[in-house]
Write a structure and sequence with these properties.
The complex is a heterodimer of chains A (about 120) and B (about 850). Chain A has no helices and eleven strands. With about 120 residues, chain A is an all-beta fold. Classes of the chains: A mainly beta (about 120), B alpha/beta (about 850). Chains A and B meet through β1, β2, β5, β6 and β9 of A and α17, β41 and β42 of B. Bound molecules: flavin-adenine dinucleotide, protoporphyrin IX containing FE, iron/sulfur cluster and FE2/S2 (inorganic) cluster. FE2/S2 (inorganic) cluster binds next to loops of chain A.
């Protein structure tokens, strides 16, 4: 059992369609994307390769491409192509605002791991 | 297995071995003696080594590993001195550093290593040595000849400490030497004993034109000057003394007074030698087990000093010695010369003057432009021809000459472009034996076989298999014709040619779909052509293409753009941005610099750096600060961040430079104003330089413009100096700035419409072939030039400075940095 936080990221319209924005949540940078089908995805902003800002990357319905060296990550699972991985966060829309659930890191079996993302 | 010893490892020796291996790799155990201490290189390209456009490593044709791979034992740096015909043994001596490979004496015979090889057959391919007239002082330090890589090194090293150089001999090689010396910053004088330059190739009138052109470029020419002596100063060359008593001061001398076959090994071995080593039509010497090939050969009383006849000899010799065709016969060659002397194109074949009353003589002169064309006709065939200053259509002329084809009644058709710009000579009509590639001696049949049997369907594939088209490249058009007539059209592997990976269409098909369906946005492409499925790796390429197709109506969806193009700045590794204002042609002003400096202070710029593109880079600017810094600077965007036209560098040109031939600054500014911000498949860098000294590095730009003597401009395309270094190909030479812009328009638009996304111009030019491009863009062979110019004009007019978005952002939160957010509530997360 661990702590989680609910965060209001503001109106959906404040993110340009098909693009991302970076939010700082409890000292962690989170990249939030507004997909072209109207849905929203949120992942850790820092690229595990060399800390590129993933919020500035190009996306489609499934992937984001890091603007610095082109590493690619799945928006739903956080899985990268070369075995790299970013955390993903649960998001939803209420009254036109984007909400997100954020869990700080937890230790499982002695390793730092993201808090669970799903309810 | 029989053992073959080849003496001489130059153009002829290496070539004949290649020909033999191609016929039967197992026929002989092969041993080669080469007096030069390395593998075989392309002697023709030595001029490029001397004028510093190529590195020695680039001109090697057979590296030492090639010999190993083909089981050839090469004694490099060993000179064969005698053939003991009774015991069938060749003896060689390892040369020391002091020995010139073509010297007549060996310095250190006593202590030198002797190498012996027995043989069944010998091939002599000893070539020639430069002829040094027997005047006093020819052995002083500072006297050079021009025959080997080592000669070039010696000349270049010595020229560093010289102001003046003299070249004795105004023939083809002498002028090449003069051109090379010019690039080493010495004043060059060419001394010719005869009444004119290039007596072998030119008549007196064209010789005069060439002389004037050369003088215009700063080379002094003395004709009718017989050298009596090279005089000494401080133990080295100090000057020349002529037979008429006059004198010339000079710090170094290059002697280029003709060549003489190297025959002494044949002489001491009692093989028949006249002027050269005498051979019959099977390339046999007076000893049936000893053959000869190359410049050392005298065949039917003729000596040859060019490579084409040598390739023919090598083929015959290989046929005979491998017994693939023991009766093959070499019957002599008709030779023509095609070259560029100091930027002047020159083609010469056959006789230079008529010698019978019935010989027809046609002459065209345009002395102001340095153009002279002369055609001599006998029995409806070319007896001789000279083209100076304009060598277009020389290939056609050369084919008529070498194949002794009958000329059309209207002779001007072979001297000038016919109106439609069609090729007069259809490659398909040529006989099988016609030589298509004159550099590498590849005949039509070889190429056609390669197309039909080996499935080579591109010019490059033919080149990879046969070497055709890999020399000067001027025959690539003919090769393309042969491919077309053999297989109809060139075949491609489809997916390799998709414009972007996510849309299964080639670029031209994609453009057609986009035009036909009037698709104006990236999301519409996915909707209409991909069943609605977006593809992340295709977006940027599609956005660039749509902008090219619809310069004004394009529906800009910013999410399809790379971050740099969303915020018009270059993202750096720490997520900050760099700002590069446009500085047209690299010329700025104190006022602009003050504003740039003030902005740099105000926004706490981390580094102010001069870019390689002659402008200023402000690094480490935060995204939020971009609009403010742009406004403070007040200069349009330099587009240093995008796949687009970048800069046009310039040199100081005629305004200040003492060498300037054309106003490079003014032209580069015009170019930069015209193409600023123009989206392209990849970045495009240009330069205009005021003379061939090339201070603005125009030869290695995507488009480079070089001012040359006579108020003209050369246009180079496809140059590169990034991870790939490539000298651009000369696309055309034009008379004024208007014409420069016209051809840059055409090339750039064609590149925008036909290059694959992220294909730089160097790859594009190589893929399409510069000759094909010339046909399309200069002769308008597809009839599309007017449209290209029109569409380019439209794109130029659609230009808007993206930094104007400082006032009116293009989308919400365009320049917003990371935003701090508050927690609404805490929950217990039960997994
Ligand atoms: C600067 C320059 C530019 C040229 N440009 C052109 C051009 O544009 N077009 C054209 O058609 N031709 C051109 N030529 C001419 C062309 O290079 C020659 O015709 C060709 O190289 C001759 O080939 P070869 O094998 O007979 O002689 P080489 O290439 O000279 O080879 C002979 C080799 O044998 C070696 N050798 C000699 N004697 C012995 C021995 N006893 N034992 C061992 N080795 C020995 C020599 O050192 C040499 O390496 C040019 C020549 C020069 C120098
Ligand atoms: C991500 C890394 C790089 C960045 C951010 C970068 C950025 C730049 C910028 C901003 C310019 C100035 C261009 C202008 O004034 O328009 C420039 C010029 C240049 N860059 Fe880079 N560059 C990078 C990598 C490279 C690499 C890898 C090479 C070589 C392989 C290279 C070769 C050059 C050259 C040759 C120029 C000068 C161009 C000219 O003379 O016109 N750059 N670069
Ligand atoms: S390239 Fe320009 S600056 Fe350089 S020498 Fe020529 S004219 Fe002068
Ligand atoms: S930092 Fe993201 S790919 Fe290198």
């Amino acid at each position: 059992m661990d702590r989680a936080y609910i965060i209001n990221l503001g109106p959906l319209e404040d993110i340009a369609i098909g693009q991302g924005r970076c939010f700082i949540v409890k000292d962690t940078e989170v990249a939030v994307f507004r997909l072209r089908d109207g849905s929203v995805a949120a992942i850790e902003n820092q690229c595990p390769h060399r800390k590129g800002p993933l919020a500035e990357g190009i996306i489609d319905q499934q992937f984001v491409v890091c603007p610095l060296h082109g590493h690619k990550f799945d928006l739903e699972t956080g899985q990268g192509e070369g075995g790299e991985c970013v955390r993903v966060f649960n998001t939803w829309i209420e009254h036109g605002n984007i909400y997100m659930q954020f869990s700080p890191y937890v230790f499982i079996d002695g390793k730092i791991t993201a808090g669970t993302n799903n309810n | 297995m029989k053992k073959l010893v080849v003496i001489g490892n130059g153009m002829a020796g290496a070539r004949v071995v290649e020909e033999i291996l191609a016929r039967d790799a197992q026929a002989f155990e092969i041993v080669m003696f080469g007096a030069e201490p390395y593998g075989n290189y392309n002697r023709i390209l030595l001029s490029n080594i001397l004028n510093q456009t190529q590195q020695p490593a680039e001109i090697f044709m057979n590296t030492l590993s090639w010999y190993q791979e083909n089981n050839i034992r090469l004694h490099a740096g060993v000179k064969a001195v005698e053939i003991d015909r009774k015991n069938k043994k060749v003896a060689g001596i390892r040369l020391s550093k002091e020995d010139a490979p073509y010297g007549t004496k060996i310095v250190n015979t006593a202590s030198a290593e002797i190498i012996e090889e027995d043989y069944d057959y010998v091939i002599l391919a000893t070539g020639s040595r430069p002829f040094v007239p027997p005047f006093a002082g020819a052995d002083l330090p500072g006297v050079f000849v021009f025959r080997t890589i080592d000669d070039c090194d010696g000349i270049a090293a010595y020229a560093k400490n010289c102001r003046k150089a003299a070249v004795i001999g105004g023939g083809l090689l002498g002028l090449e030497a003069a051109r090379g010396l010019m690039t080493h910053d010495v004043e060059v004088t060419v001394i010719e004993a005869g009444p004119q330059l290039m007596q072998m190739q030119l008549d007196s009138e064209s010789g005069d034109i060439l002389r004037r052109t050369m003088e215009g470029m700063g080379v002094r020419v003395l004709t009718g000057s017989l050298t009596a002596q090279i005089t000494e100063r401080d133990g080295k060359v100090g000057g020349l003394l002529f037979k008429d008593g006059s004198a010339l001061e000079t710090d170094m001398v290059v002697i280029s007074a003709g060549i003489r076959p190297i025959t002494e090994i044949a002489q001491v071995s009692h093989i028949d030698v006249n002027r050269g080593i005498v051979c019959d039509d099977q390339m046999r010497t007076s000893d049936p087990e000893i053959f000869a090939v190359g410049e050392c050969v005298e065949h039917r009383e003729k000596l040859y000093g060019l490579v084409e006849p040598i390739w023919e000899q090598a083929r015959v010799l290989a046929d005979v010695i491998t017994e693939k065709n023991p009766d093959a016969a070499y019957e002599g060659s008709r030779t023509g010369t095609k070259l560029k002397v100091m930027g002047v194109e020159l083609v010469s074949m056959g006789q230079t003057d008529p010698d019978q009353p019935d010989d027809e003589v046609l002459v065209y002169r345009n002395p102001n432009r340095g153009i002279y064309k002369k055609l001599l006709v006998r029995d409806e065939r070319i007896l001789g021809a000279i083209l100076l200053g304009d060598a277009e259509f020389s290939d056609t002329l050369m084919q008529f000459f070498m194949n002794e084809k009958e000329l059309p009644e209207n002779r001007s058709e072979v001297l000038f472009a016919s109106v439609e710009g069609t090729t007069l000579l259809a490659a398909a009509d040529l006989p099988d034996g016609a030589q298509i590639c004159n550099c590498n001696g590849v005949c039509k049949k070889t190429i056609v076989d390669c197309i039909e049997n080996d499935g080579a369907t591109s010019v490059a594939a033919v080149g990879a298999k046969t070497k055709a088209g890999k020399g000067c490249g001027s025959c690539r058009g003919l090769i393309a014709q042969l491919i077309e007539s053999a297989v109809g059209e060139v075949q491609y592997d489809a997916s390799e040619h998709y414009y972007v990976p996510g849309v299964p269409l080639e670029k031209s098909q994609l453009i057609r779909e986009i035009r036909d369906r009037k698709i104006k946005s990236v999301s519409e492409v996915f909707a209409q052509l991909c069943g609605g499925r977006e593809h992340v790796d295709s977006k940027v390429g599609l956005a660039s293409l749509l902008k090219t197709v619809w310069p004004k109506e394009y529906e800009d969806e910013r999410d399809a753009r790379f971050i740099n193009d969303r915020v018009h700045a270059n993202i750096q590794k720490d997520g900050t941005f760099s700002v590069v204002p446009r500085i047209y042609g690299g010329v700025t002003s104190a006022e602009d610099l003050l504003r740039i400096a003030n902005a740099a202070v105000k926004y706490n710029v981390k580094m102010v750096k001069f870019t390689g593109g002659q402008r200023i880079d402000l690094l480490g600017v935060k995204k939020e600060d971009l609009p403010g810094i742009w406004k403070d600077i007040g200069i349009p965007s330099g587009h240093a961040y995008t796949k687009a036209f970048r800069t046009c560098k310039s040199c100081v040109g005629t305004d200040f430079c003492r060498f300037g031939l054309g106003d490079s600054i003014s032209l580069s500014q015009k170019i930069e104003i015209r193409y600023q911000g123009m989206e392209c498949p990849h970045k495009v860098k240009m330069a205009v330089t005021g003379c061939p000294r090339n201070c603005a590095e125009a030869y290695v730009k995507d488009v480079g413009v070089v001012a040359i003597e006579g108020d003209r401009w050369e246009l180079y395309i496809g140059g590169a100096a990034g991870s790939i270094i490539r000298k651009g190909d000369l696309m055309c030479t034009v008379d004024d700035e208007v014409a420069v812009i016209k051809y840059v328009d055409r090339f750039l638009q064609y590149y925008r419409e036909h290059a694959k996304y992220l294909e730089r111009t160097y790859g594009f030019v190589e893929r399409i072939g510069v000759d094909v491009l010339k046909g399309i863009l200069i002769e308008d062979s597809l009839g599309i030039c007017a449209q290209l110019e029109e569409r380019m004009q439209e794109a130029v007019e659609a230009y808007r400075d993206p930094w104007a978005e400082a006032d009116v952002p293009a989308y919400i939160n365009q320049f917003q940095g990371p935003q701090l957010v508050e927690v609404v509530r805490e929950v217990n997360n039960n997994g």
